[in-house]
From TrEMBL:
Pathway: Amino-acid biosynthesis; L-serine biosynthesis; L-serine from 3-phospho-D-glycerate: step 3/3. Keywords: Amino-acid biosynthesis, Hydrolase, Magnesium, Metal-binding, Serine biosynthesis. It catalyses: O-phospho-D-serine + H2O = D-serine + phosphate; O-phospho-L-serine + H2O = L-serine + phosphate. It comes from Pseudidiomarina halophila. GO terms for molecular function: L-phosphoserine phosphatase activity; magnesium ion binding. It comes from the Bacteria. One of its GO terms (cellular component) is cytoplasm. PANTHER family: PHOSPHOSERINE PHOSPHATASE. This is Phosphoserine phosphatase. Belongs to the HAD-like hydrolase superfamily. SerB family.
Amino acid sequence: MVNIDAPGIVLFDMDSTLITIECIDELAALVGQKEQVSAVTEAAMRGELDFAASLRARVALLKGVNEQQLQQLLAPIPFSRGAEALVRWLHQRGWRAAVVSGGFTWFSEKIAAALQLDAHKANELQWRDGLLTGQVIEPVVDAQSKADYLRTLATRWQIPMTNTIAVGDGANDRDMLEAAGMGVAYCAKPALREVADWCIEQPDLMQLADYLAALNETN
């Protein structure tokens, strides 16, 4: 069981977890491709498609998008309810908080800065002359990469894996939830719920703080 009174890590997924949107779907909307891209996103999150292949296919549809269009999605940043309060709560207790995403560094670095997260990792989009080329720089951050990143952070900060928590919502988060000392499914797809140690059913991340506080009071 995780111990909130000892140093630990919470590693969050980004899209539909720390923030309320799927960035790639909203980017696709800007170029009239949302319906097509959203269908692929949903299938990937259910675990029906290979994530890396599906990501490449979706990014190809974003060719020609400019940075100003990306900026529209973060004005303001659509944080999930409780995200900012939960990160503050964790930091007050000496815990680290980080984000890992199958989305994009363009978003993750801004979200990490706004929340004062301790680390972030995501896919990098390829740009040429200020426009997206429709390609993602390899290797793709997939489910295995997310689990590996959790282990990397635990080693970096000398935190036992037993005191790590992973929070996500889709099939691409499955490996990191299984690797963590505690896996939390946040308003999640069935593929993730079945491997989670605990599920947040309502869209409020501060429920995790309440759960951890109660859990440690009883022990």
